[in-house]
TrEMBL record, chain A:
Family to which this protein belongs: Belongs to the ABC transporter superfamily. Ycf16 family.
Source organism, top-level taxon: Bacteria
NCBIfam families linked to this entry: sufC
Location of the ABC transporter domain: 2-246
Keyword annotations from UniProtKB, A to Z: ATP-binding, Nucleotide-binding
Record-linked Pfam families: ABC_tran (PF00005)
InterPro entries: AAA+_ATPase, ABC_transporter-like_ATP-bd, ABC_transporter-like_CS, FeS-cluster_ATPase_SufC, P-loop_NTPase
Species whose genome carries this gene: Asticcacaulis aquaticus
Record-given protein name: Fe-S cluster assembly ATPase SufC
From TrEMBL, chain B:
Gene designation per UniProt: sufD
InterPro entries xrefs: Fe-S_cluster_assembly_SufBD (IPR055346), SUF_FeS_clus_asmbl_SufBD_core (IPR000825), SUF_FeS_clus_asmbl_SufBD_sf (IPR037284), SUF_FeS_clus_asmbl_SufD (IPR011542)
Pfam families: SUFBD_core
Name assigned to this protein: Fe-S cluster assembly protein SufD
Species, as recorded: Asticcacaulis aquaticus
Top-level taxonomy: Bacteria, Pseudomonadati, Pseudomonadota, Alphaproteobacteria, Caulobacterales
Annotated ranges, domain SUF system FeS cluster assembly SufBD core: 101-317
Domain of life (superkingdom): Bacteria
Family matches, as SUPFAM superfamilies: Stabilizer of iron transporter SufD (SSF101960)
Length: 249, 348
């Protein structure tokens, strides 16, 4: 589903990803763990197409298409969703308007009909209920004045409405208390499907107790230095990244 | 205290203010009006009176502003003042006029002023408002003038204790457009708001100049002005809040925020607070920046093409000004107008 080969990326003049290889098949959830500054967020931003994240070499195949050739919004319409570590505040744009604009823009690009306002409202209302999001909150400008937990729940609501094929969750657990973590994780787990892949980027094993990965990759200094099963998270929690820092050098 | 309006007669070029006048430093009328316009009667776009979306419709083109009080009497609290004119090619025809509206004790008026039109003209109009105790005036001004127009629109506002004056000005500029409001703040619970939003492109020029004089105790003033400027357009904001000695308990806040969408656009901002009283709360803030690239990427990453995302963010930038309008029908009308105008800002 998502296949990354020898990806080298620099930001400004600094090389952050240094020949990264990764393959996430459909239906699987993979986790990327690593110390600060390893390039975890850079990987997410590069896949989403953020300006100033320059790909020096490498290739990314997404469902048979060359992801790196696509514009940012085309990647979204093709089914890629990056959940931001710090979702941005969009003053002046009600959350409902934002989501509906995004949804219909994606549909238009895919040659599908727009979702009507009543259908959109009905679907949103049902999903918001399961995510414990008040409809009044959806009428407020997106993320403005929202708590960390509210912002992440809003991210999950967007995932559920946009129905992407592949999810990248960048530090989704940051800023969440235990209760919010559970709501958000339940929301993400509900999206697990045989035709959907996920890449979970995280510092801590905590999130992986809730969103159980099939594979874990350790990212150090711009490269995957080790991959393994779910048990790897526990080992990291106990011993830290130290033994892998040497491998990257 | 008398209002300090620069004397101006469209038909006497010696009266045209130049850059040497500090008040007109950024809006040089003498440079724009090289030829003296001829006195002209212009065609009204819609020479009719009647109902306009729940407002009493009064045409007052050509600066024929003399009978406004009679229109107010018929308006039942909602007056649509239609000042749309059709000019001619080139600024050859001009008009000027003055009008007066007085609101009695406890009277309320929602006034929608529409300055839109076609072709070119020069205009110099002045409106005088006087509010008695407890009266309220909500004034929504749509400055949708033709790009070739040269217009100076000025007003004076006298408030009384416990009265409320709320002004919302929306502009797309013109060849030269200056909107001046002078307020004598009566304090003693009187409340003044003077907001504005502008969307300027090409070579449009819009000057929003506001003067508030707090002469008495316990008066409040709030101002939020937001705008977008692209191409070679120029926005001028000159706001002055003057608090006289003894006008304690004054609470005055002024904010101006502009987005410059490309190099070559101009924003001249001059917020001024002049305070001679001791116990006051006054603040002003002025920011000029570019569109938030991080927010733009966030929108795009959710599937919006760049032009859609830009238009949405630009519109969102100025919308908060309109959202403060309490009257729902009027608010919707203005929001639709902004949406329509923001459409012209898609491409860069």
């Amino acid at each position: 589903m998502l296949s990354i080969e020898n990806l080298t990326v620099f930001v400004d003049t600094k090389t952050i990803l240094k020949g990264l290889n990764l393959n996430v098949p459909a239906g699987e959830v993979h986790a990327i763990m690593g110390p600060n500054g390893a390039g975890k967020s850079t990987l997410g931003y590069t896949l989403a197409g953020r300006p100033n994240y320059e790909v020096a070499q490498g290739a990314v195949d997404f469902n048979g298409e060359d992801l790196l050739e696509m514009e940012v919004h085309e990647r979204a319409a093709a089914g890629l969703y990056l959940s931001f570590q710090y979702p941005l505040e969009i003053p002046g744009v009600p959350a409902l308007t934002f989501i509906r604009t995004a949804l219909n823009a994606q549909r238009k690009l895919r040659g599908e009909d727009e979702m009507s306002a009543p259908e959109f409202l009905k679907t949103t209302r049902e999903l918001a209920k399961t995510l414990k999001i008040d409809m009044d909150m959806l009428k407020r400008p997106l993320n403005v004045g929202f708590s960390g937990g509210e912002k992440k729940r809003m991210e999950v609501l967007q995932m559920a409405l946009l129905k992407p094929k592949f999810l990248i969750l960048d530090e989704t657990d940051s800023g969440l208390d235990i209760d919010a973590l559970k709501v958000v994780s339940d929301g993400v787990n509900a999206l697990r499907a045989p035709d959907r892949g996920m890449l979970v980027i995280t510092h801590y094993q905590r999130l992986l107790d809730h969103i159980k990965p099939d594979r874990i990759h350790i990212l150090v200094d711009g490269k995957i230095v080790h991959s393994g099963g779910p048990e790897l998270a526990l080992e990291l929690e106990a011993h830290g990244y130290d033994r892998y820092l040497g491998e990257a050098a | 205290m008398a209002f300090d309006l620069t004397p101006l007669d469209l038909f006497d070029p010696s009266s045209y203010p130049t850059r040497r006048n500090e008040e007109w430093k950024y809006s040089d009328l003498a440079r724009v009006l090289r030829e003296v316009p001829s006195r002209a009667v212009l065609t009204h776009l819609q020479a009719a009176t009647g109902d306009f979306g729940g407002f009493y419709w009064h045409c007052a083109g050509d600066g024929q502003l003399g009978d406004l009080q009679a229109a107010v009497a018929k308006a039942n609290g909602r007056l649509y003042l239609d000042l749309s004119d059709v000019g001619a090619e080139g600024v050859v025809a001009g008009y000027q006029g003055e009008g007066r509206i007085t609101l009695g004790v406890g009277e309320h008026l929602i006034l929608l002023e529409d300055y839109s039109g076609a072709l070119d003209y020069a205009a110099n109009t002045t409106l005088h408002f006087e509010l008695a105790k407890g009266a309220s005036l909500t004034r929504v001004v749509i400055l949708d003038e033709p790009e070739g127009a040269v217009s100076v629109r000025r007003s004076t506002v006298k408030t009384a204790p416990g009265s409320a004056f709320k002004q919302y000005v929306f502009s797309t500029g013109a060849k030269f457009q200056r909107f001046e409001t002078h307020v004598e703040h009566a304090g003693h619970g009187a409340h003044v708001e003077m907001h504005g939003a502008y969307l300027l492109k090409d070579t449009a020029h819009f000057d929003y100049t506001t003067r508030v004089n707090h002469a008495e105790i316990d008066g409040t003033t709030e101002q939020l002005i937001k705008g977008l400027v692209k191409d070679r357009a120029t926005a001028v904001f000159q706001g002055r809040i003057y608090v006289e000695k003894g006008a304690d308990g004054t609470d005055a806040r002024m904010r101006h925020q502009a987005l410059m969408l490309n190099d070559g656009a101009h924003v001249r901002a001059k917020p001024e607070l002049e305070i001679y009283a001791d116990d006051v709360q006054c603040a002003h803030g002025n920011t000029i920046g570019a569109l938030d690239e991080a927010a733009l990427f966030f929108c795009q990453s959710r599937g919006m093409p760049e032009d859609t995302a830009r238009a949405m963010l630009m519109q969102a930038f100025v919308v908060p000004v309109a959202e403060q309008i309490e009257d729902e029908a009027l608010r919707e009308m203005v929001l639709n107008w902004i949406e329509d105008k923001a459409g012209g800002f898609y491409a860069l």
